[in-house]
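Final report, section 2: Outcomes. Of the targets proposed, Peptidase C2 calpain domain-containing protein is the one most frequently requested by collaborating groups, and we therefore present its record in full.
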Amino acid sequence: AYNIGDNPQFRLEVDASAGAVWVLLTRHITQIDDFRENTEYITVLVYKNEGNRVYYPNDPPPYIDGVRINSPHYLCKIILSETSPRKFTLVVSQYEKMHTINYTLRAYATCPFTLSKIQNPYTYTEQVTDGQWKGVTAGGCRNHPSTYPYNPRYRVTLDTTDCTNQLAIDLKGPKQYQMGVEVTIVSLADDTVTAPFKAKSSGAYRSGFVIMELQNVPAGVYEIVPSTFYPNQE
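The predicted structure is given below as tokens.
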């Protein structure tokens, strides 16, 4: 699997009525040689994802999985019924990241709509680049209770009075290993706040990387435990 979270993504919101939306992606071509030998394959992926950012290309599966074409234009049509979702996520994608491309994304519809870029809500970043599972710290997942506690542990402190924080954890590792993350609340800054969870996992273990997003996170201290699925995977 690969991460499409860094691809340009847009939120499409349509009114609650039947109709259709056409989405047109146009790649800017500024040199004649580029036009003669167009090796850039582009497309737009459409997700029924409430207009939220998409990280895994097939979770959820795309509603429209656009064919990658080496044309300057890609056009897709979203047909809407009275019961269709009102919010979609549009992901601009290349077949391979060969060069930086400039493009224009347009939408045309038979009903009112808005199209806006999905912004990155995370203004503070911390990164651990020397993390490793090695020896006893390669404890595997919770299916292995005798070794799981020895996995690496990290603490994050949300130093704010806000209870609507957003927290994202991005774990990358060897592609041959399936990995996951668990977050546990150590303490909350405000004792009167109800904890949204005691412990929360990233779900199914994934090969190479996993993304975990938490919404409405109160200020406090949180412990992060990354793990591979099996013990002794170093």
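The longest strand covers residues 178-188.
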